[in-house]
Amino acid sequence: MAEQPHETTAYPAAPWRMVGSLWLSLFTVRHDVDELRPSGIYGAAFVSYEEGSPLTYSELLVARPVTSAEHGKRVSITDIWVDSPASVAGGRELWAIPKDLCDFTLESSHTGPLSRTEWSASLARRPIASARFTDVSRGMLRVPFKGGTWQPGLPEGGGERTATLRGSARTLPCRGVWDFAADGPLGFLRGARPLASARMASFRMSFG
């Protein structure tokens, strides 16, 4: 696995204008895990940031919806891994997103409009999560999206941060099957009730 990022690792200035694809599933967690992970709805997603982005890398994230009088409706990222030290440094320093490094595998195949995708993420050769998706999103029309993140701050300091995202993608519901390692950092999602899955194909997004 790549070396842990040093505090001087260079990263792009905000906003990051990214292109790629995202595979998302929603789950219901019925019990409080800890202060940052209460019971409720969580989204788990694998993301591939591709050529045309200032950084190209893979990502696994888990986030939950939050609402406040000051910032409105946003999502808060509770767990996230990438395979780019520059993305780790930028995510943590710009937006207090708690990124860490891990290793990924990604395999995709296509039969006409049908796409099949398999992802896995591991940390020091120990599984975190894997997922399989089937979709026909390549045949969809492009539609806009927008949203934002709120982060409560990192242990190393810096306070809470927000970021805005907006863009467009070919989005359609898909079939998603996940496996979370029981002894891994996302073990709290193992056995969680799956609600829905979707793919955002060929997205173009500004984040920051």
Helicity range? under 10%
Please give the count of helices. 1
Order of helices and strands: EEEEHEEEEEEEE
Separation of the first and last Cα atoms: 28 Å
Query: What's the main sheet like?
Result: 8 strands, mixed
Please give the number of β-strands. Answer: 12
Which class best fits the helix and strand makeup? Answer: mainly beta
Sequence of strands across the biggest β-sheet: 5-4-3-2-1-12-10-9
Average pLDDT score = 93
Shape: globular
Strand content: over 45%
| Rg computed from alpha carbons, rounded to a whole number of angstroms | 16 Å
| Low-pLDDT stretches | 1-6
How would you describe the overall organization of this protein?
There is one protein chain. The strands form two sheets. This protein has an eight-stranded mixed β-sheet with strand order 5-4-3-2-1-12-10-9. Strands 6-7-8-11 form a four-stranded antiparallel β-sheet, with no helix packed on it. It is mainly beta. The two termini are 28 Å apart. The chain contains one helix and twelve strands. Helices cover 5% and strands 59% of the residues. β2 and β3 form a beta hairpin.
In brief:
This protein has one helix at 85-95; strands at residues 16-29, 40-49, 57-68, 72-82, 99-101, 103-111, 114-123, 126-135, 142-151, 161-173, 175-180, 193-207. By secondary structure, it is mainly β.
Task: State the main characteristics.
single chain, mainly beta, four-stranded antiparallel sheet, 12 strands, disordered N terminus
List the topology elements:
Blueprint: E1 16-29, E2 40-49, E3 57-68, E4 72-82, H1 85-95, E5 99-101, E6 103-111, E7 114-123, E8 126-135, E9 142-151, E10 161-173, E11 175-180, E12 193-207
Parallel strand pairs: 4-5
Antiparallel strand pairs: 1-2, 1-12, 2-3, 3-4, 6-7, 7-8, 8-11, 9-10, 10-12
